[in-house]
Amino acid sequence: MSHRVFESVREELRSRMPSPCGEGGEELARRIRVAFDGLPRDTDPDDPWLGGPPGDYAWLAEYENLPDHPQDADRVLSTAARALRGQLRWHSPATLFNMTPQPLLDTAAITAVAGLYSPNALWDFSSAGVIEVERQLVRQFARRAGWQDTAGGVFSFGGKAGLLYAVRMGLNRCSPDSYRDGLPPGGTPVVVTTAHNHDSLESVCALLGLGTGACVRVPAEPGGRVAPDAIAEVVDALLAEGRPVACVVLSGGNILHNAIDPVRPVTAALDRVRAAHALPYRPLVHFDTVVTWPWLFFTDYDFAGDPLGLGPELGDQIRATAGLVSQVREADSMTIDFHKTGLAPYSSSLFLTRDAAELHRWVEGGTGEAEHRPHGENVLLHTIEHSRSAAPVLAAWVAVQSVGVDGFRVYLANLLMANRAFMDLLPSRGFELLTPFSDGVASVYWPVPPDGTPAFTLLREAGPSAVEAANRYTHTLFRLLAGYEGNPYARVVLGHLPAYGTGPGGEPVAALRLVPGSVFLDEATCFQIAGRMEQVKKALDVAVRFGSGKLNEAHVYHVPE
Length: 561
Fold this sequence. Notes:
Layout: H1 3-15, H2 25-37, H3 73-80, E1 95-96, H4 105-117, H5 130-145, E2 152-156, H6 159-174, H7 178-181, E3 190-194, H8 201-207, E4 215-218, H9 228-240, E5 245-251, H10 263-277, E6 284-288, H11 312-325, E7 333-337, H12 338-341, E8 349-353, H13 356-360, H14 391-425, E9 431-433, E10 443-447, H15 456-459, H16 464-482, E11 493-502, E12 508-514, H17 523-545
Parallel strand pairs: 1-11, 3-4, 3-5, 5-6, 6-7
Antiparallel strand pairs: 2-8, 7-8, 9-10, 10-12, 11-12
């Protein structure tokens, strides 16, 4: 490379970066506009897909080989935005796929601005006041949890990270030297959890060297919650076998059924088991509240006066769930996903622990000191990441301070209202409601096929051929509603659950999940969407009856939450 070429390339690089004499904000805003100009322009305001369902990405072939020289910046940036064609639009009322919020414009904005300065929130020397912002959020939500000022917390990449922190802290309790010496000889420590807890817990045990078999699941009662005595019996039996119990993970409410385990009775039962075995520690109790943490905003709500006008039915529903979630006061740790119902972009999760000292000796043992040092001397050596983005912290802070307690109350209440509206509307339109007990933000339906088994319970007793035919019908309807099969009618994206139940021979039986997420949902909009779902189903039913419609193959695959 000649000196002239070097100078030319260097000048080109300089033109694409913030100038030392300027902040770069105006240019960043212009660059964002260039990216927006690359997005599809033909999206219907009600379409759940940006520019329509995912399609052809053959344009990537042009970029298969790395370029030798800098390329036109506007063209590359605009082209990159094409990868978002077919992206789900979470703010569309018809996106009912999963619990992913429509981020506030403000949280998206602070994420972009943070990217301009690239603060690393591992160390306050390189992240200015971000750690102070994080500590304020920790204090605010620790108070909501009913914990004292000894609580601690740290932002990380998701609910799975929260489980990693919790299990590792539990290992420190049952085997204090394991951070240095590894697992001691003898029985491998175990993690006890309930059947409806997140399925990533097995992989967390694998990552920590315990093995997936160290995750012991306790079956739930018919109502969906675990019996405290059942957990105590499992823990007691494991200890009798010489297996240390590091952690008990309780469900703070999952997406599908909002099943919430009772924390207070479980901790009392564990205290009795601890005394019986003369244990020097109690297994750490983690309350997995990634979904239900917004109910903590209702722990001090005046349900009698009802200033928001929730009404008695919705108010009683919220009060019952808030009462269960508030038992986090008795737990040792919890996790908050701001990227679920916190109006922040992916990913933004806060792991909280009642005792900051335990968190600060998470990996390296140490004294557990969590003192606040002068600026520039606070290094978070206890975090999973060394490269830790500040954007999730700032996004969560903006969301919380911007909309306030009432904002989150109304947002959550609106989701619950929308879910209840669909539960009332869809059964008369050919969708059997499988979760009439749902008090969360999701509901599950089985689309009744024409001239087939008339009820889900009967299907689960039917033979393999009936189950296979019903699964093919459910999968085809899911794809038709989403627009994958050229559906000319307005599209609706639900979640497909390929193995919601089982047949008599263990065959997976499919269903559909509906999760409202948009604040633009109201009763009238729910009515319109339910009508569209009915029309698409009727068209498929006609095609199936007359043999003119081909049903898709239905494969069993894992559905992440």
